[in-house]
User: Fold this.
Amino acid sequence: MIRSNETELCRGDQVVLAYGKLRVTPHPLEFWFPAGHLIALVGRNGSGKTTLLRALIGERTLAGGEIFLWDGSVAIRKTKPRQIAGRIAFVAQEQTVPTHLTLFDMLSLAFLPGLGWFGRLNAAQRQRIQDTMEAFGIASLADKRVKEISTGERQRAALARAILQNPRLLILDEPTNHLDPEAKARFWGSLIRETRENGCDVIVSSHDLNWVRRHATWICALSEGEIVYNGESDTFWKGEFLKRVFGEIGEEIGTPIFGDQEKLF
Amino acid sequence: MRWLSRRSFWLVAAVGLVLLLPFFGSEQIPFGDWQNPVSAGYRILWQLRVPRLALTLWVGGSLAVLGATYQILFHNPLAEPYLLGISSAVTLGIGLGEIFFSLAPYSYLSVLAGLAAALLATVVLITLSLSSLGDALDRIVLFGTGLNFLLSATLFLALSYHEQQMGGGSLRWLFGQIPWLSARGVLIFAGISVPFLGWLFLKARTLDALGLGDAVARTLGVSVAGERAHLVLVTSILVSLIVAFTGSIGFVGLIVPHAVRLLFRPPNTRTLFTSAFVMGAVFLSLSDVVSRAILPPFEFPIGIITTVVGTPFFLYLLWR
Assistant:
């Protein structure tokens, strides 16, 4: 964990994670993420990825300590949701949605923080939604219920909503878990294209190691609530960390078979 | 745009139907009587039936909106306005008032006893939803359900202890019954409850956001625990106001929102609320007329009629 002269995206100080009464971290975590990277959180199921991501936006999984964002300008525990709205966006593993909500109306929620009492969108906002839907290839679904479109389309719609929020930091929690290979590829493609365009930082947890290896520039690896690696991605894939993070199968992940699989996508 | 025209067709049909309703009941009134001050029908129409119709419309619409709110807030299609036990608290307050203090139903003190009991239950619920337990939505629902059972069991216990009271006024609250209020009474009732219902309409988008999950709602600027507590508070007040006058009229709050989703496919919660209000209002006023017209002058408890009339219609909607 070497500090460089890069600017700081995020710093964790004595962070204790818990899910309800269940403590996730045996010891308080200290960590540091640089700005300007695509940061990937990797680790087995139950290693604490989701709890950490939810702590980053100030949910109650942050049971102790403090997380600072953007060179310490925001202390997340002391910050009201209204103050982070428009700066952080979140995409969950599976998008829950009220049964009746249509795609267009779901996307329009991206503008919720700035809407008045009656929640009316202006013409410019409607146009942005239309443009974003076209960029994500979901414009034809505008009047469909989000519940009724396919899982792949729903995840892309969630990403579109997050992008419409115009965030400085985009957090994604295993966003492609339930997607088929093609939907996965389209999702990742949209993510890279959209975040490069507006230069927003990305923290993503994923089991899709093919993709992580190709695109993530910073890796934070968790195992049983402890951070076992946090640094530039290159050294992670060569080191002994793979085995510590993923167990026996870790060695296989590092072998050349990996390269062949990559061509599939 | 197709749903709009379909909606306006139903709206016109509904308004026409509602305008005709006051002419039906235990006494059939000739249509000409509505502007003939010397006729017998005129007084029945304007002093009894029109205020009652107004009350029924308002209560039916409110119940449907409340049901829709709980279904979205608790991510639970089976949620209805009486889910959290507030209605049982009102009934218990009124029942205990009648049994131990001989408070006549609909008297000021009786209504106050019901509201006081509801307030207590609400405070307990709000405390819970603001505590760390409130993070798990299911817990509020489970706790409310438990409260519901506990309070109704207490009422039944009191009722069976005072057997002679069975069939008395408080039993009506269990089925639900529309009271004969004066025009002034209806206006006061509506006036008190308007702000709470209006507030729910303003919170429609927040409800949509909460439906996207806690983490996403948070990044959309919604203070999840706080908003949830506010919603529980406002809905509880509205439910207790309604139940204090009409008892627990079932089915409207549970089924109308679903019927609206099936019939009109509203694109968001705001439009769902509007349609649910209209449909709930029409449905309850229709049920009320039916409850009085079957065996005049006997009035069937309206809660039974809503179920008997509504179930076949709802099954048809699901089946078609």
Remarks:
- Confidence is low (pLDDT under 50) at residues 256-265 of chain A.
- Chain A has eleven helices and eleven strands.
